[in-house]
C-alpha cells in the first residue's frame, strides 16, 4: 500500500522563512498511483512566520503528517488499522540536522537532502546529497511538461510564481557547473525549494514506507 502524497520542507534560518509544500502523484484518470505517474498536483503551500521556534515547526509538521487528509488507511487480516503517512523530504543543508532530530523525536520517518553544487546524487542511509540542479529540474520539467498543476485557491501561489521569476541559473565557464541565485538581494526562495523538494521526492519515491498499526 502506497501513499502518493509527498511533503517538501525547506528549513529557514533567522532571516529566512521555513516553507512547506504538498504534492500528490496522479494518473491520467485521476486515480492515485505510485507507478506511471504523469501528473503532480500541488495541493498545499505553507510559509511559517519568521523566527517560528523549530519545536513548533516540528509539531506542526508531525500533525500534518498524521492528518487523515494525507494518511492512507486500510486494515490487515487481524482487522487492525494500518496507516501509511505521506513521504517527507527535508532540506538538511543548513539548520536541518537539529530539526531532523526534533522530527525523529516525534517518531517521523523522512528523507534528508543536503543540497550540493555537484552533478551526482549520493546516498548514505536516508540522507541524500543532491545537486541543486536536480532539485530545480524536478520543478522545471514538471512545469514545462504541464505535469505540475496547482490546486485552486492556493493563497501563496502568486508568491511562488514571483519566486520562480526571480530565480536564475548561472554557468561557471571554468568548471561548467551551474548554480542558482536570485536576481536581487533580499529575494526569497523558500517556496521554490519546498516545491522542488516535494517534486523531487515524488519523482524519486522511497520504497521503505513507514507503517503505523493501530
What's the short story on this structure?
The chain has five helices and 13 strands.
Please provide a written account of the structure.
With 214 residues, this protein is an alpha/beta fold. The chain has one domain (5-205, 207-211): Nucleotidyltransferase, domain 5. The chain has helices at 54-65, 96-105, 132-144, 157-165, 190-203; strands at 5-10, 18-26, 39-48, 72-75, 81-84, 87-91, 111-116, 122-124, 127-131, 148-150, 167-171, 178-182, 212-213. The strands form 3 sheets. Strands 8-9-7-6-1-2-3-10 form an 8-stranded mixed sheet. Strands 4-5-13 form a 3-stranded antiparallel sheet, with no helix packed on it. A two-stranded antiparallel ribbon has the order 11-12. Helix 3 (132-144) crosses helix 5. The chain is globular and about 55 Å long. The protein starts with a strand and ends with a strand.
Question: How is this fold's topology laid out?
Answer:
Blueprint: E1 5-10, E2 18-26, E3 39-48, H1 54-65, E4 72-75, E5 81-84, E6 87-91, H2 96-105, E7 111-116, E8 122-124, E9 127-131, H3 132-144, E10 148-150, H4 157-165, E11 167-171, E12 178-182, H5 190-203, E13 212-213
Parallel strand pairs: 1-6, 3-10, 6-7, 7-9
Antiparallel strand pairs: 1-2, 2-3, 4-5, 5-13, 8-9, 11-12
- Rounded to the nearest angstrom, the radius of gyration is 17 Å
Instruction: Report the β-strand fraction as a percent range.
Output: 25-35%
Strand order of the largest sheet: 8-9-7-6-1-2-3-10
Distance separating the two termini = 16 Å
Unreliable stretches covering 5 or more consecutive residues: 170-176, 182-186
Could you please say which CATH topology applies here?
Nucleotidyltransferase, domain 5
Largest beta-sheet details? 8 strands, mixed
Order of helices and strands: EEEHEEEHEEEHEHEEHE
Helical content stands at: 25-40%
For the secondary structure, the number of strands is 13
CATH architecture term: 2-Layer Sandwich
Query: Can you give the mean pLDDT?
Result: 80
Apparent shape: globular
Structural class: alpha/beta
How many structural domains does the protein architecture include? 1
Number of distinct helices: 5
What would CATH call the class? Alpha Beta
Amino acid at each position: 500500500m502506497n501513499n502518493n502524497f509527498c511533503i517538501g520542507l525547506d528549513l529557514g534560518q533567522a532571516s529566512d522563512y521555513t516553507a512547506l509544500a504538498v504534492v500528490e502523484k496522479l494518473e491520467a484518470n485521476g486515480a492515485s498511483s505510485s507507478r506511471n505517474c504523469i501528473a503532480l498536483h500541488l495541493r498545499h503551500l505553507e510559509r511559517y512566520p519568521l523566527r517560528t521556534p523549530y519545536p513548533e515547526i516540528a509539531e506542526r509538521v508531525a500533525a500534518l503528517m498524521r492528518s487523515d487528509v494525507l494518511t492512507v488507511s486500510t486494515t490487515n487480516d487481524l482487522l487492525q488499522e494500518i496507516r501509511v503517512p505521506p513521504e517527507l523530504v527535508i532540506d538538511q543543508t543548513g539548520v536541518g540536522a537539529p530539526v531532523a532530530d526534533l522530527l525523529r523525536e516525534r517518531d517521523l520517518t523522512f528523507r534528508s537532502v543536503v543540497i550540493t553544487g555537484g552533478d551526482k546524487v549520493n546516498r548514505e542511509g536516508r540522507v541524500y546529497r543532491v545537486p541543486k540542479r536536480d532539485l530545480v529540474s524536478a520543478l522545471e520539467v514538471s512545469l514545462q511538461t504541464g505535469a505540475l498543476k496547482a490546486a485552486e485557491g492556493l493563497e501563496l501561489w502568486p508568491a511562488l510564481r514571483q519566486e520562480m521569476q526571480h530565480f536564475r541559473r548561472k554557468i561557471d565557464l571554468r568548471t561548467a557547473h551551474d548554480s542558482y541565485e536570485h536576481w536581487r538581494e533580499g529575494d526569497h526562495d523558500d517556496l521554490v525549494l519546498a516545491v522542488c523538494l516535494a517534486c523531487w521526492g515524488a519523482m524519486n519515491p522511497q520504497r521503505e514506507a513507514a507503517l503505523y498499526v493501530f
